[in-house]
Amino acid sequence: MLYLQLFISFFKIGLFGFGGGYAILSLIQNEVVERYGWMTAQEFTDMVAISQMTPGPIGINAATYVGYTTTGSALGSLLTTFAIILPSLIIMLSLCRIYFRFKDNIYVQGVLQGLKYVVVGLIAAAALLLMTPDNFIDHWSLLLFLLVIAGTAIFRLHPILLICLSGIAGFFLYS
């Protein structure tokens, strides 16, 4: 019965947990601490700290931790981890199926083409929000930015190579 409750709880969290890992922590706390009492508030706080320190998404780390501490077994960890990612998996597989069915549709192509520009605009908006008078980019950063743009657009260099080269240049410029 405990395994079924864990699966249902974390499936619901995965289904309704919009906004990323930190946004679903309150849903996890509601289920784990308040509804079922599987953890105390202090244990939950410790779980959040451990989930932040371990590599990977905090929501999945938290689910894995709760599954293990609640059941005392790796099976509990696997079950809660699977339950929290299953809704996303189902939704993505459904969207992929729909995409492959309609990918040649002129309207779908138009929407996807428009989304490319929306994404660029959102990234540019985020960059502009970060450019306050206190942390505005200096001339070296601007030069490095322009070189990366040229490396991408003109020379078709791989993004990982450009990231590594930018890191090396930044190390020498700012250390």
Cα end-to-end separation: 58 Å
* Radius of gyration from CA coordinates: 22 Å
Low-confidence stretches: none
Largest sheet: none
**Principal-axis shape:** extended
Q: Bin the helical content.
A: over 70%
Q: How many individual domains? A: 2
The run of helices and strands is HHHHHHHH
Query: How many helical elements?
Result: 8
List how many beta strands DSSP finds: 0
β-sheet strand percentage: under 5%
Which structural class fits the helix and strand makeup?
Answer: mainly alpha
Q: If you average the pLDDT, what whole number results?
A: 89
Describe this structure in words.
- The chain is an all-alpha fold.
- It has two domains: 2-97, no CATH class; 104-174.
- 81% of the residues lie in helices and 0% in strands.
- It contains eight helices and no strands.
- The model has no long low-confidence stretch (mean pLDDT 89).
